[in-house]
Structures are given as structure tokens and as C-alpha cells.
């Protein structure tokens, strides 16, 4: 583990969820912006608990890594804060599966424990990684996140709630199949939805800047990456062009997914273990039919122009790096997204 937090001119930040995709990017951004970062991680972290404490610390260079239970207020205070003063608590914790019980336990329960710890220890500012899709909360994990957001807003603490659009990792699942010569799968004609993809690094920078930018205090912050909104069909067209192949698409009607979900829900009455699969299929359907853009409450339509942009990394750069074998397609547990 890393030594004690060094004396720096920046702020002192406790980071939860540091071993996740955005947590790691946020840790690096906080360090780049000159802050001292303490990460509280589980003794076994990462996908499937494959990281021990030393391996987690290796992912978080320049940070102080402590072990404990980031889902419990007492451990956050005792093991994470360890009697030290902090200027902010940043939570990038999220259910790794999105399954209902886990979502309520982590996206809601653990976030509230973190909030309680911040309040008990007089930490003045909490930053929460949320998701843009909570603006239309139909799924369990969205409802759990939304409830946590509301608790944070009502807490009286300074807050920054960051609601990003789609991550690159969630839009890279078909790179390999296209490379293998298979068609790109589309729901409907591939123009049902659009998003403004944001890179891990740009999102990490945005989250870290919430600490020092007063415009991001006491705000709910929808945020996308640079450039115009992109549809799934455009993603496919770009991939084929990049690989020098003739575009080949397979269009799957939405009703097929509805049939699968209905079947799983019915079957889960006999085999309750299928309920999570039904929820995951529901998550897949949600993203196949709902755009990751700001929803105009007056028109009920998604609005690319109303969706703020940040950063400079583009999905096309990411696809090019994947095609060159320079970036690993690490999709974590969110393979359904
Ligand atoms: N994918 C997208 O396109 C997208 C877009 C917008 C918003 N989002 C939101 O972003 C979040 C996902 O971010 P991400 O991809 O960075 O997540 P991730 O890679 O799955 O990381 C999740 C983090 O939460 C921690 N965590 C999960 N369960 C835990 C538990 N039981 N106890 C302690 N810690 C736990 C993990 O710790 P361990 O390493 O110990 O497991 C890890 O640090 C989700 O809330 C999603 O809604 C996603």
C-alpha cells in the first residue's frame, strides 16, 4: 500500500469506487489537478474480486490506498478517513451488475452510507457519479440512483451530481465481432437512439473539476463527450470504414427483445434466479430504445443540443486504438450496456 497522504497545496479527497473504470480515471484526474487522494477499497476488489490490496494500489498510482468496507459508514470513517480531515468525498461506487438487489444495496444504500460518513465527519462537499438515464428512471438501478441523488440534494452538504452519457466501453462490445467478419447488430434500423460518448479520462477530469469549479456546486450535471450525437448505425458504419470492410448490419426488431424479456419474466415465477436476467434484458432494451441525451421535459424528446459536452477524446479515436490493438476492450461487468 502507498504511504501516508503527502502534504500538498490541493484538496484532500476521499474516493470510493476507485477500482472501477471511472473511479480509476477520476483518481488520476484528481492527482493531475493537484489533490491528495485517499481511496478506500475492498480487500478483494475488481471484477470478480480478482485484485488483492497490492494489485488495487498498483492501479491507483500516487494515491493512498486503504482497505475496508466502502459500503459501511463506520468503515468509511474508521478505515478510510482514519481521523484525518477531508475536503471532499467523491463516490464512483456503482453496482457491478445492475441487478435490482445489488443496485439498491450499492447505488442507493452504500451511497447513503457514504453521505452519512461525510456528514458525521464534517466533509463539506460530496461528488456522486450518477447516470444521465436516471432522468427517465424505469429500471431498478436508475430508481436506486435517483433516490440516492435526492438524499444527497436534501442533505445540506455541497453536492455535485454528475450524470454522464454513454461510456466508450459500453459502445465497444461489437468491435471484436466486426473484426471477425460478423455483421454489426442493430435494434430496429439503428437510428432509434443517439448519445454523445464520453471517454473515461474526460469524465474523470470533469468529476475532479467539480471540486474547484463553483459552477458545478449544488448542481445536477448532465455531461457528454465532444462532437455531435452518434447513432448505433453510425457507430457500425464508422467501424466498417475503419476496418476497410463493406458495411453489414443485422437488424433485430425491438419486439424480439420484448418477447425475450416477457419469457424471462414468466419463467422467473418458477425459477426466481431468472429475475435478474429479465432485469438485465430490460436494461438492454432500455438502451436500445432510449437515447443518452438530455430529455426535454416539455416535449418529452431527447435533445442533443441541450446535452453539454466536455473533453477532447472521441469514440472514433477509441475505435481506431482498439483496431490497432492499442486499447483493451475492458467492459467490466456491464457487458449488457
Ligand atoms: N456504462 C455506461 O455507458 C454508463 C454511462 C453513464 C453512467 N454510467 C454509470 O456509471 C456507473 C458505472 O461506472 P463504472 O463503469 O466505473 O463502474 P465499475 O467499473 O463497475 O466500478 C464499480 C465500482 O463500485 C465498486 N463496488 C461495486 N460493488 C461494490 C460493493 N458491493 N462493495 C464495495 N464496492 C463496490 C467497485 O468496487 P470493486 O472493485 O471492489 O468491485 C468499483 O470500484 C454505473 O452507475 C452506471 O449507471 C454508466
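^ C-alpha cells above, recovered residues below v
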Amino acid at each position: 500500500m502507498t504511504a501516508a497522504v503527502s502534504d500538498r497545496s490541493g484538496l484532500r479527497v476521499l474516493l470510493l469506487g476507485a477500482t472501477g473504470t471511472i473511479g480509476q480515471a477520476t483518481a488520476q484526474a484528481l492527482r493531475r489537478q493537484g489533490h491528495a487522494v485517499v481511496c478506500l477499497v475492498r480487500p478483494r476488489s475488481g471484477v470478480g474480486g480478482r485484485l488483492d490490496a497490492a494489485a488495487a494500489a498498483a492501479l491507483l498510482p500516487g494515491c493512498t490506498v486503504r482497505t475496508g468496507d466502502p459500503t459501511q459508514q463506520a468503515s468509511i470513517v474508521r478505515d478510510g478517513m482514519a481521523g484525518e480531515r477531508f475536503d471532499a468525498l467523491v463516490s464512483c461506487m456503482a453496482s457491478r451488475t445492475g441487478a435490482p438487489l445489488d443496485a439498491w444495496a450499492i447505488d442507493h444504500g452504500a451511497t447513503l452510507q457514504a453521505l452519512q460518513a461525510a456528514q458525521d465527519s464534517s466533509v463539506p462537499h460530496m461528488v456522486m457519479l450518477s447516470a444521465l438515464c436516471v432522468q427517465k428512471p424505469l429500471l431498478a438501478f436508475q430508481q436506486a440512483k435517483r433516490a440516492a441523488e435526492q438524499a444527497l440534494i436534501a442533505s445540506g452538504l455541497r453536492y455535485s451530481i454528475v450524470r454522464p452519457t454513454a461510456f466508450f466501453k459500453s459502445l465497444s462490445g461489437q468491435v471484436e465481432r466486426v473484426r471477425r467478419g460478423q455483421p454489426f447488430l442493430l435494434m430496429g434500423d439503428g437510428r432509434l437512439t443517439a448519445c454523445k460518448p464520453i471517454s473515461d479520462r474526460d469524465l474523470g477530469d470533469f468529476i475532479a473539476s467539480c471540486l474547484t469549479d463553483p459552477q458545478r456546486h449544488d448542481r445536477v450535471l448532465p455531461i457528454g463527450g465532444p462532437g455531435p450525437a452518434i447513432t448505433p448505425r453510425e457507430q457500425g458504419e464508422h467501424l466498417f470504414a475503419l476496418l476497410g470492410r463493406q458495411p453489414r448490419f443485422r437488424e433485430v426488431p425491438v419486439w424480439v427483445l420484448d418477447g425475450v424479456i416477457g419469457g424471462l419474466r414468466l419463467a422467473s415465477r418458477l425459477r426466481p434466479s431468472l429475475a435478474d436476467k429479465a432485469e438485465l434484458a430490460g436494461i438492454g432494451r432500455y438502451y436500445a430504445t432510449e437515447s443518452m441525451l438530455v430529455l426535454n421535459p416539455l416535449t418529452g424528446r431527447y435533445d442533443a443540443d441541450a446535452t453539454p459536452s466536455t473533453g477532447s477524446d472521441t469514440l472514433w479515436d477509441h475505435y481506431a486504438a482498439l483496431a490497432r490493438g492499442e486499447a483493451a476492450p475492458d467492459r467490466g461487468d456491464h457487458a449488457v450496456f
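Residues 1-8 have pLDDT under 50 and may be disordered.
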